[in-house]
C-alpha cells in the first residue's frame, strides 16, 4: 500500500506559500499527496484538481492533526508567521511520534553562528519568532520522527510584499534597513519548496538533520540596483525609522509578524552576524538556486505601475 505524503499549509498563504509549492512539485512527480488545508476554498479545489487528497484541518487541533496522519510516513510541516508555532509544532511532533513517521521536513528559519552550543543558539536568536523556531526544531528532534529542518532567512517573496506597492507607485523602497551597506540574507521560497520536495520524494533518509538555505547576501544597495535592472527602471532606497515602518505596515501585518520583522531589521542593521550563501539547493536538488535578480525579473509584474 502506498503512503501519501502529508503536506501542511498546502493552500499557500501570505508568506512564501511553500506548502502549495511542495504539494505541486510532489504531484508533478506522481507522488501521492494528502494536502492539509485550513479551510476549503478555491485554493483547495485547485489542489484537488491537481490530484491531491484534500483534508480540512487545524494544526492547533490535536484530533485533526492525528486524523491527517493516518497511513502517512512522511510529512512537510509549515506554520504561518502568527501566534501558535510552538503549540502547532508540539502537537505535530506528538502525532508524528504516535504514527511512527520516518521523516518530517520542518520549515524553520535561519539560525545562528556555526559551532554554537544548543543553548548559545537560543541566546543568539534575533527575534522571539526566530527563538520559537529554534525551540520547535529541538522539539522535533526529541520526538525522534526523523525530523530535518530547512533554515532559511527572509524570502525574496517577503521583499516583493514589502516594497511592491511603493516601487510600483513611486519607484521607491521605503524600509528601516539603515545605511545602504546593510547586508540582508535572502532565499527564494521556491527553493525552500524544491529542497523540501526533494527530501520528501527521495526514498532514502536525508544525510543531514539541518539544511541552512541562504542563496543571496546582498547589501541594500545591491538589492535595489538588482531590482532596478530587473524591472528596467531606477529605484530609490529611502531609509525610514522602525516607527515609520510599523505605522506603514500595521494594517497588513499581524502583531506577531511585525514584532519578528522589526527585530530582524534591527539585527541586520547592527550587522550582528556574518551571513554566507550555502550550497544546500545545489546539493539536494542538483540545480542552481534562483538568484535574486531572476526572482525580480520573473515577478516584474508586481512592481509595474499598472499592477496597482
Ligand atoms: N516569509 C519569509 O520570509 C520566511 C523566511 C524564512 C522562514 N519562514 C518561515 O516559513 C513559515 C511560513 O511558511 P509559508 O511561506 O509556507 O507560509 P504561508 O504562505 O503563510 O502559508 C501558511 C499556510 O498555513 C495555513 N494555516 C494557517 N494557520 C493554520 C492552522 N491553524 N492550521 C492549519 N493550517 C493553517 C494557511 O492557510 P489559510 O491561508 O487558509 O489560513 C496557509 O495555507 C513560517 O514558519 C516562517 O517563519 C518564512
Descriptive key words:
308 residues, alpha/beta, 7-stranded parallel beta sheet, binds NADP nicotinamide-adenine-dinucleotide phosphate, 2 domains, UDP-galactose 4-epimerase, domain 1, Rossmann fold, 9 strands, globular, two-stranded parallel sheet
Structural class: alpha/beta
Largest sheet: 7 strands, parallel
Q: Cα distance, first to last residue?
A: 50 Å
Q: What is the succession of H and E elements? A: EHEHEHEHEHHEHEHEHEHHHH
So, the CATH homologous superfamily of the largest domain?
A: NAD(P)-binding Rossmann-like Domain
Q: Got a strand count?
A: 9
What is the overall pLDDT average?
A: 96
Which CATH architecture of the largest domain is right? Answer: 3-Layer(aba) Sandwich
Number of helices: 13
Low-pLDDT residue spans: none
Count of all domains? 2
Bound molecules: NADP nicotinamide-adenine-dinucleotide phosphate
Please give the share of residues in helix. Answer: 40-55%
Radius of gyration: 19 Å
Amino acid at each position: 500500500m502506498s503512503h501519501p505524503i502529508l503536506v501542511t499549509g498546502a493552500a499557500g498563504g501570505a508568506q512564501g506559500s511553500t506548502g502549495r509549492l511542495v504539494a505541486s512539485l510532489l504531484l508533478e512527480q506522481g507522488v501521492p499527496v494528502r494536502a492539509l488545508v485550513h479551510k476549503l476554498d478555491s485554493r483547495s479545489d485547485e489542489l484537488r484538481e491537481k490530484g491531491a487528497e484534500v483534508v480540512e484541518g487545524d494544526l492547533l487541533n490535536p484530533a485533526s492533526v492525528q486524523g491527517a496522519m493516518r497511513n502517512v510516513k512522511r510529512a512537510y510541516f509549515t506554520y504561518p508567521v502568527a501566534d501558535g508555532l510552538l503549540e502547532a509544532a508540539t502537537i505535530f511532533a506528538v502525532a508524528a511520534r504516535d504514527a511512527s513517521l520516518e521523516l518530517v521536513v520542518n520549515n524553520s528559519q535561519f539560525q545562528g553562528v556555526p559551532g554554537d552550543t544548543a543553548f548559545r543558539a537560543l541566546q543568539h536568536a534575533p527575534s522571539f519568532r526566530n527563538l520559537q523556531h529554534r525551540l520547535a526544531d529541538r522539539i522535533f528532534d526529541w520526538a525522534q520522527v526523523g525530523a530535518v529542518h530547512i533554515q532559511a532567512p527572509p524570502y525574496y517573496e517577503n521583499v516583493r510584499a514589502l516594497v511592491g506597492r511603493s516601487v510600483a507607485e513611486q519607484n521607491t523602497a521605503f524600509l528601516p534597513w539603515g545605511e545602504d551597506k546593510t547586508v540582508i540574507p535572502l532565499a527564494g521560497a521556491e527553493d525552500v519548496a524544491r529542497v523540501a520536495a526533494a527530501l520528501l520524494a527521495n526514498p532514502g533518509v536525508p544525510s543531514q538533520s539541518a539544511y541552512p538555505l541562504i542563496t543571496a547576501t546582498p547589501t541594500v544597495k545591491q538589492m535595489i540596483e538588482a531590482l532596478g535592472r530587473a524591472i528596467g527602471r531606477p529605484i530609490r532606497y529611502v531609509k525610514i525609522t522602525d516607527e515609520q515602518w510599523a505605522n506603514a505596515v500595521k494594517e497588513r501585518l499581524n502583531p506577531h509578524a511585525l514584532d519578528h520583522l522589526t527585530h530582524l531589521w534591527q539585527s541586520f542593521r547592527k550587522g550582528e552576524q556574518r551571513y554566507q550563501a550555502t550550497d544546500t539547493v545545489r546539493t539536494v536538488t542538483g540545480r542552481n538556486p534562483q538568484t535574486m535578480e531572476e526572482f525580480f525579473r520573473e515577478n516584474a509584474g508586481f512592481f509595474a505601475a499598472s499592477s496597482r
